């Protein structure tokens, strides 16, 4: 019974992650400027890779039982690493883009500019 | 000091085991030795206050943060940006968001939480005045209190209880 529940949750999370990856890709194409596109990229990174990795952890245990625990732990560890390190790269590219004066339009208010940073 | 070393060694050992993926005697021995060395060298970088490590309440609060973050904040933020991908209803602004956390870990954790939720990205941090500069995909108002309540208040209250 438990393994079936794990299978269902795992499959759901992997499919959800695939859908979020596609939506993130569409957002990358449709959004108008660099800074707005970062938000679509976040959907792809968090929803499109962390969520399915958690799903893989469930699936591995659901399919292989005890033998799948190592894969489950590896998937959970990788998800945790992406979760902790993805914002670092986001911060780095967002900050460097701001410093390089990459066009920020459309932008309704810009406190960064106001404070001269 | 022992707490610092043991905790750091334990974390690096967990990482090692999950990457190696086997529980043989050789791997465990090498892992313990290397984890011990890493723990001794990096203890002060990883742990700033050993009282906090030993406080079970803080660990429970950290779990509470993870649960709320994944089951409440992330789904809402994802849904909001997904809608905007299709209806292109964009009102982006770079806004000042004040923070009052003291520890570096706390500031980083809240900044990461803001960036990891789609719709808000931290572009810059003013550590002297205590401001995040956040690119917000839909900013109905740029008033500081409003931005604080809508972007970082929830994270800050959760993070304050365990970092």
Automatic annotation (TrEMBL), chain A:
InterPro entries: PhaG_MnhG_YufB. It holds the Pfam family PhaG_MnhG_YufB. The chain crosses the membrane at residues 6-29, 41-63, 69-94. One of its GO terms (molecular function) is sodium:proton antiporter activity. Keywords: Membrane, Transmembrane, Transmembrane helix. PANTHER family: ANTIPORTER SUBUNIT MNHG2-RELATED. This is Na(+) H(+) antiporter subunit G. It comes from Methanosuratincola subterraneus.
Automatic annotation (TrEMBL), chain B:
GO terms for molecular function: monoatomic cation transmembrane transporter activity. It comes from the Archaea. It comes from Methanosuratincola subterraneus. InterPro entries: Cation_antiport_E (IPR002758). Coiled coil: none annotated. Pfam families: MNHE. Keywords: Cell membrane, Membrane, Transmembrane, Transmembrane helix. It is a multi-pass membrane protein. The chain crosses the membrane at residues 5-24, 30-48. This is Na(+) H(+) antiporter subunit E. GO terms for cellular component: plasma membrane. It is found in: Cell membrane.
């Amino acid at each position: 019974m438990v393994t079936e529940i794990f299978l269902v949750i795992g499959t759901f999370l992997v499919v959800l992650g695939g859908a979020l990856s596609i939506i993130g890709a569409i957002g990358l194409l449709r959004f108008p400027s660099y800074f707005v596109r970062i938000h679509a990229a976040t959907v792809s990174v968090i929803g499109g890779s962390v969520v399915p990795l958690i799903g893989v952890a469930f699936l591995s245990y659901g399919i292989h039982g005890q033998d799948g625990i190592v894969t489950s732990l590896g998937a959970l560890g990788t998800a945790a690493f992406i979760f902790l390190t993805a914002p670092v790269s986001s911060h780095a590219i967002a900050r460097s883009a701001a410093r390089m004066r990459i066009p920020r339009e459309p932008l309704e208010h810009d406190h960064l500019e106001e404070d001269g940073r | 000091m022992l707490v610092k070393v043991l905790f750091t060694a334990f974390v690096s050992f967990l990482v090692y085991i999950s990457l190696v993926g086997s529980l043989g005697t050789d791997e465990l021995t090498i892992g313990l030795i290397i984890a011990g060395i890493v723990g001794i060298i990096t203890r002060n970088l990883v742990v700033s206050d050993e009282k906090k490590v030993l406080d079970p309440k803080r660990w429970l609060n950290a779990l509470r943060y993870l649960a709320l973050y994944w089951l409440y904040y992330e789904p809402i933020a994802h849904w909001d940006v997904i809608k905007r991908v299709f209806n292109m209803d964009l009102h982006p602004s770079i806004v000042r968001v004040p923070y009052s956390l003291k520890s570096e870990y706390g500031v980083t954790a809240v900044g990461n939480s803001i960036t990891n939720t789609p719709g808000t990205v931290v572009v810059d941090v003013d550590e002297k005045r205590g401001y995040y500069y956040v690119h917000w995909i839909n900013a109905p108002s740029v008033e500081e209190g409003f931005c604080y309540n809508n972007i970082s208040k929830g994270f800050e209250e959760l993070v304050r209880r365990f970092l």
